[in-house]
Specification:
There is one protein chain. By secondary structure, the chain is an all-alpha fold. The protein folds into two domains: 35 residues; 41 residues, no CATH class. It is elongated. It starts with 7 loop residues before the first helix and ends with a helix.
Length: 83
Amino acid sequence: MSRNICSHRSGTCIAAKNVIKKYKRKYRIAGDNSMNMVWLSYLKFLEMFSKDLREYAAQNQIKKYTPAQINKLYVDKMEKYKI
């Protein structure tokens, strides 16, 4: 019972750690589950990148991306944000 009772702050931390675990599993990334700005900024980058992919697909009427198209967009985006 006591595990469910926590402050807003600790609840937020737990939620963020769970998000990090989910992305690490999805992208098969190894390492501990410490919260740091590198992970949070990378997750933000992935979020923006997927949004850009959807917008680009809508503009260019792409039904399904090829790996080469995704790779090119990913490299362009990395250069744009200097990551």
